[in-house]
What does this fold into?
Amino acid sequence: MGLTSALFTGLSGLNSSQFRLDVIGDNIANINTTGFKGSRTLFQTQFARTLSAGTKPNGTQGGTNPNQIGLGSTVGAIQRSFTPGSIETTGVPSDLAIEGEGFFVLRTPENESVYTRDGGFTLSADNRLITQDGFFVQGYSVNSDFELIPGAVGDLSIPLGSMTVARATDSARFDGTLDSTGDVATQGTILQSQILHDAANNPITGATLLTDVRNVGGPALLANGDTITVSGIKRGGRDVPAETFVVGTTGTTVNDFLNWLDQVTGIDTTAGVAGSPGVGVTADGRLEIRGNAGVENALSIQAGTLISNGSTQVPFTFNETQAANGESTTTTFVVYDSLGNPLSVNVSLVLESRTTGSSTWRYYATAADDTDVQFDIGTGTITFDQDGQFVEAQNSGVLVNRAGSGANDPLSINLDFTRLSGLNSRDSNVVMSFQTGFATGTLIDYSVGQDGVITGTFTNGLNQTIGQIALATFANPAGLLARSNNVFFIGPNSGEARVTPPLTLGAGGITSGALELSNVDLSREFINLITSSTAFSAASRVISTSDQLLQELLLIARR
It folds into this structure.
């Protein structure tokens, strides 16, 4: 009985050592497998044969211990170690390594969710981030404003060379200082033409036909079909876009021409603005243009050009009869429509009023690229307190007409003046420091941050978030089921996957351009290999010795 038991006890030792050798062989075979997690074999004793359970001590003698003979060993567990491996830099942006807890989330072609520490990813032909086996890396996508969409994860796409974006400007922010101690603007430029009469030699009025307008005692200056091109208008020294008026088509009367000229010059006639801006006809028959207050709104007009019958004439000559006054400053900046077209916008700020404890400025916005004739696009006021601090801005939105351009119409822009101050300074200076739009750009590069955010670089210099890597953590990672392809499945004792962004709820961080190496310690595995082979040999000796003793018993029986 005892020798037979010894045979099976030795056999259990062989089996245990064999299991351990299998695990060691797997560890060594995967020493260069990216993200591989090594395992160890834990043994337990098998049930023992009890010869005596022992006795209790009493008054006359001490107790005795149990007499038990073990019947060998068995594999208690094959335990996987999820200690982190070393990080190796590769320089490949699609290579990702996890520093800390967590697993990359993958979707198989069969729509199964699997998990891995192997971050050796690449881009597919359709620009999706995939593993070496074609599994899709999961993460968070972005909306049209490049804002991450929390919640459900999906396939991550990095469309290099194919993602072209543009965004319309919806806000522009200004920085600077306005000198509220300067002169208050009370008047704008007044320009008047020569005296003009009608066919009856009376001073013209707004209702006079353009074909009846003439110099005193002279012939008619205009005929139907004549083209007046005003190309010499300047506002604050800045060129105003040239426009064309066709007599009989664009308008027929003096008022029609004056209203057109009002739009071309960008005069803002909103109720409440300083001075008396607008256009009209004086009592003695002069065309009159009254500009907006502020030096930066000062108007000057070179001679208009009349083209008729192949000859060039000058129908109207304007002279300045009043200069614009008042502290003012201007800034010109670029915004973008929904197609990414750059548009030039000018904002002039004029000191409109000043009282005890406050000062009020008015902005005048114009756009050279506005698609209609109306040059001005909005006006509003900005108020500062006694300390020169911003109080409020009224009517801070402007509209740029984009009709017929193919872009959304109109382009609405909010002007943010909250960072301006109204202190005493030698000069007023304002700049546009930030605007939300951008021109057309194509994705040419990307990078992945520690938080897993994928930032794309576009040809227009823009850097925008285009996605975020997702990580999964488990209450018991050792409970995961390992499969081929270097991936894990959820096991009965792993717990459910908690999918979160990196650096959230215990998940580790991401290192881009690097891979996590195997955590197998080769020197330790060699030692384990030696001890396991020695244990295997020793167990085999138990079997051979038991066999020899049984042979001796058989020989005794034959005698």
